[in-house]
Amino acid sequence: MAKITFDGIEVDVPDGTTILNAARTIGGGIVPPAMCYYTPLKGSGGKCRACLVRVAAGSAKDPRPMPKLVASCVTPVQDGMVVENTTSEQVLNVRKGIVEMLLINHPLDCPVCDQAGECDLQNFAFEHGVSTTRYEEERRTFEKIDIGPLIQLHMTRCILCYRCVYTADQLTEKRVHGVLGRGDAAEIGTYIENIIDNEFSGNVIDVCPVGALTDKTFRFKQRVWFTKPVNAHRQCENPKCCGKVVLWYKGKDVLRVTARKDQYGEVKEWICNTCRFDKKETADWTLEGPAHIDRSSVISANHYELPVLNAQVIADLPESSLRDLEQNPPMRLGN
Amino acid sequence: MGRKLLTEHINVEGIDTFEVYRKHGGYRSVEKALKTMTPDEVVEEVKKSGLRGRGGAGFPTGMKWSFLAKPEGVPRYLVCNADESEPGTFKDRQLMSKLPHLLVEGMITSSYALGANTSYIYIRGELLYVLRILEKAIAEAYANGFLGKNILGSGYDLDLYVHPGGGAYICGEETALLESLEGKRGNPRNKPPFPAVQGLYARPTVVNNVESIAAVPVIVNDGGDEYAKIGVGRSTGTKLISACGHLNKPGIYEIELGVPVEEFIYSDEYCGGIWKGRDLKAVVAGGSSVPILPKELILKTAAGEPRLMTYESLSDGGFVTGTMLGSGGFIAMDETTCIVRNTWNFSRFYHHESCGQCSPCREGTGWLEKILHRLEHGHGNERDIDVLASVAKQIEGNTICPLGEAAAWPVSAAIRHFRDEFEWHVRYPQEATRPGAVFPGKAVLA
């Protein structure tokens, strides 16, 4: 066991735990954001640099601070380590810089993007970024590519987290896609646009933190915050598939099926393409009840909690909306 | 004239063949090490010599060797980094193509010291002709019993392979090199674990530059103490400097560390001064990634001491008024050079070579290049210079590997020392972008 101090909170974790996972055992607002790290995927992490933290003391044996900020998702803890995340001005400033870097080539087409509302980049930028940009140059763009009949790759939105590459590598038998090219011209690709043909390929959609990989059976059907997530399961014929999913309803229709995710947006158990793409009738499933959506998602705001409204905004609302508000008073900020 | 330890016989006819090389004292270090020394004694000699890594970072080689983990029953590897691709650096190419046996000899002695039974030379893909030269040398070494099973009857086995890269700058970073050598995409790894613990095929590995390995035979032959007598302070031995740019005599010079920079540039023994009788404007002293310094600061430190060609003297003053010896790629620029254009050129290189794995470098290098491109082509605005400096700062220190820093340092340093010239490009774009335009000096901005 190793005892570490994270933002002034002491916690005991097993040896070999990463700083990020140690912080997650504490939970709450001090957990560093992670855009590329994904617990179920071996080798992921270290790439987006969103989770950089300052190590103020390396260990009890060698209490010198580490010279550079370290990626908390891949750096193992040492006994006596002191880590600063939200308590370090430097870390917060660097994180602002990371948001800026991730956004300069991102199209910011959230209004037409299917991922909007459940997008890690949106949340990350909203929580840690600045609201303006200094970038005046042209953004890099790519053509959209269909990888198979069910998945579309929109490389322009990609932040090259490599999650889908690890997913395809580790869930499927043959290596189906990887990264081509270098630098900001690097792209996720299949060899000469080969179709990704594998019964677990749909999971790349779930692991994508942005809207780069989208479900073609759901594209442009509905904004996610207008759909209701419901936990369900079925006895799947595929022995590797857990059959435990979230159904996203609009009215009586199941618009899409996804795997279940934990509070950090990580898939708990993988599901097969049959469950994901073919079983879109309520009759296919045993319903369990509403799925709880954690984190700062607009989805949860709409269905399971009272909306949080800013007092300044209320003054500008039209009269009809104000009447609604009187009948259903919202939770107000600051009290 | 300084002593030449590595390149003494470089111009001997046929030195690239085994017979001639052997006649000039070649492979003596292998005989000495394998027959009279234990591996630890070789490591000890290298430690005593004070040899510092010649690839750029200048980390003591002996210390690096002693960090190598040595678990029982697990193979260890020595990998020679011959992926020389830093702009301005071209020493290893020359050393390998003229003296291939020196590298092979160094590899054998070093592998023996580290207990490696398989070693690799990872060579830059563009240097295919050098690869052929090296392979021929290795074949000759095998034929003469210096490689293979039971070398010189000592019971020590070694296989040596040359592996070409695909020509990516990033594969010169040691962990990216190992990934590439394993047949994967050349992306740098997150550290820890360091290669000394988990390197090639997750085994303990040492990665050394060509020139560092080539210095090992000399150290073993003459003894570490003898080697340490050359040079100044902690900068011991000789160093190959690839001098290029606006010099009368560009080329590769083996210097004893400690030669004054002024002497190196102006004396006839070395570069012979600036071409066409012009004045020196700036120097990039250690390959394109180290900070550029203006004439006043490269010849003398901020304290007024003469600057020497040593690791310590060149980095005197930190990055505010100093630079680094780096890989020894010495680029001199005369008074007509446009610093903005030069910085843009460097940035273009790093933008092209960034692997795209981590976000600050992938996005930042492109951003830097685009702003510098605009400035150089007369479309800059007042804000750009500050944005440049700030973007460079956002990259620096926040990336997986040092390529981020290598991209950021030249930009930060150019703005630090030549801000007036950047402002001239913003305020007088028409004059500044005229072909052959020369910055007339600070007065023009008044």
From TrEMBL, chain A:
Residues 90-129 form the 4Fe-4S His(Cys)3-ligated-type domain. Transmembrane segments: none annotated. InterPro entries: 2Fe-2S_ferredoxin-like_sf (IPR036010), 2Fe-2S_ferredoxin-type (IPR001041), NADH_UbQ_OxRdtase_ferredoxin (IPR054351), NADH_UbQ_OxRdtase_Gsu_4Fe4S-bd (IPR019574), Prok_molybdopt-oxidoreductase (IPR050123). One of its GO terms (molecular function) is 2 iron, 2 sulfur cluster binding. Belongs to the complex I 75 kDa subunit family. Keywords: 2Fe-2S, 4Fe-4S, Iron, Iron-sulfur, Membrane, Metal-binding, NAD, Translocase. It is found in: Membrane. One of its GO terms (cellular component) is membrane. Residues 2-89 form the 2Fe-2S ferredoxin-type domain. Its main location: membrane. The lineage of its organism: Bacteria, Pseudomonadati, Bacteroidota, Cytophagia, Cytophagales. It holds the Pfam family Fer2_4. Its cofactor is [4Fe-4S] cluster; [2Fe-2S] cluster. This is 2Fe-2S iron-sulfur cluster binding domain-containing protein.
Automatic annotation (TrEMBL), chain B:
It catalyses: a quinone + NADH + 5 H(+)(in) = a quinol + NAD(+) + 4 H(+)(out). This is NADH-quinone oxidoreductase subunit F. PANTHER family: NADH DEHYDROGENASE [UBIQUINONE] FLAVOPROTEIN 1, MITOCHONDRIAL, NADH-UBIQUINONE OXIDOREDUCTASE FLAVOPROTEIN 1 NDUFV1. Coiled coil: none annotated. SMART domains: NADH_4Fe-4S (SM00928). It comes from Hymenobacter metallicola. NCBIfam families: nuoF_fam, PRK13596.1. One of its GO terms (molecular function) is 4 iron, 4 sulfur cluster binding.
